[in-house]
Structure formats: structure tokens, C-alpha cells
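Researcher: Here's a chain I'd like modeled. Treat it as a single chain, no partners, no ligands.
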Amino acid sequence: MTVKMLSCFKAASRDSYTLRKIKSNNWCRAGAKEECYGKKNHLYVRIPHRGAAMRNAPSYGVRGRRNFTNTGVRVTASTFGKARIGTYAEKANGHITVESAAERLVAHLLCIDPRVRSFKPQPFTVDLVERRLLYSRTEITEARKMRQALRGHIEYTPDFATVQIDGLQCAYEVKTEGYEGDTIYQDKIDCAREIIEAHGISLCTAVVPEDERHPLLVNIQLLKPALTRAHEYLTTDLIDQVERYCASGPVLQRNLCADIQISPGMIPPLLVIGVLQADLVRHRIQGSLELSPAFGDLSHLCLIEELLS
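Model: Modeled as a single isolated chain. C-alpha cells:
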């Protein structure tokens, strides 16, 4: 009979799983300081160490790791189905959940876009068979029962729908660069676009860059938080001082901050309220960024068009 000694302190994840599996069965206690279990000519021995700590703590949820595109937003625990990422959007009536970091980026772009009055994630479902839009869960359930024998692409749900301040409605399909889908999926999108546009809503595909260092992905992490607290950080005297300094023409961010003695952290708030403007698609918010007076214009925050394919 082979004997396997498993230490509580040195057990690997595979051994920890074995112990948990064994513990759910019948154990035979061999002594005060060890426990044994026999199976298929093997004897597993567990020797507890006094004061030993667990190497792998149990985890019951999923938390996002910090990187360029994920600055700490918690990933909702994935108990089943698709992963969900939570974020806050005032234009979407508070907390929303999305399915990917690319969708979260688009949600943040819609938050700072001055043309967007409100938006909603997964606003409706397109019935590709009966060529209609389904808005409630009851309608979707009934439609699925009627066509449960059908196969293939029978429905489609856009990622976002927006209502602009001029009343124009738009729907967005969000994809990551390099994963736009095959020709079959594109045919499904084209079919859904025809139905959606027949209801007076335009459907666009937003392709998010895969590079985490892309200026748009980096800048939105600074602009979105600055939007909610811009008026708390900025004073009238500071705004007047910045406007007088930039009155002669474009300046570099490092020169502006050094000459009037302001923190670089004030640049994002100045951009989101229309005091300054810059090319936020091709250049990051850093010392070499060229700034110019905006005079209240917010067109430099209309960034969603840069992603449309």
C-alpha cells in the first residue's frame, strides 16, 4: 500500500482539492495528529501543522485585476452565464452592468458625450423572424416559445441605445479590435440593422482598440471621474487665470502647469467643462499634450465617432 503524506502548509491547489474531496467521504482517524483515508491501494495522510496558514484562501467571487483598461471597477461575481462588470453612469440612471471592458469604455464615452441625453444597456431585442422589436421580458419569452423549433440566428440584442438632446436615437454594437465576428455574424448584424432602422433608430458598430495604451483608453479613465467633480475642484479665479494664459494660442500642458502653478490633475476637469480643448484621440493627457482655449465648446468630447467602423 502506497502512503502519500500531505502537509497542510505545503499542499498545492491540486492536493487541496484532493483533501476536500476526501473530507466529504468517510475518514478513519489514525491518531491524535493525523488522519488517514484509503482508496485503491493508496493511503492519504493529512498531518495538521500547529498555527499553519492556508496558502490559497477560498474565493467566492471574481474581482477585476488592475490594468490600463480596468482601474479597479469590481467584476460582479460570475455564478453562472456571462461575466458582468459593474459601473456607474448618471445618464443611465445610476449603476449598470456590462459584459466586457470594451462595453464599459463605450459607456464612459457616452457619459462624457455632450450630445447624449440618456442611454441604456441592452435596450431591446430584435426578432429577426417576425422583424419586430421586443422591449419587455414577457415579449421576449413569448417570442422564444413561438420559434423554439427554429435554428440559426433568430434574434439580436444591441449593446447600447442612446437618446440625444435633439431626439435622435442610436443603437451601438460594441466589439474589440480583432474580434469583429465572421461573415455569418455580419450578415446577422446587417439583417438587424435593416429592422432597427425601419423603426427610426440607427445601428452603428463601435470597435474598441485592443492596445491598452491607446490614448483614448487612457484618457477616458481621467475624463469620466473628472466629470462628476469638476465644479468641486475648479474655482472662478483658476478658470480666469487659465483662460488669460491660453489667450495667445496653444500651449503645452507642462508649461501651463509650471507657469501658473496648478496641478496636472486639474487638466481633466478643465477639459470636461469646456475651458480647454485638445486632441484626446491621438494624444494622452500628459506633459506634452497641446492645449488651447475651448471657450465653452465641448466638441472635443464627442469621441464615439472615432470608434465607428
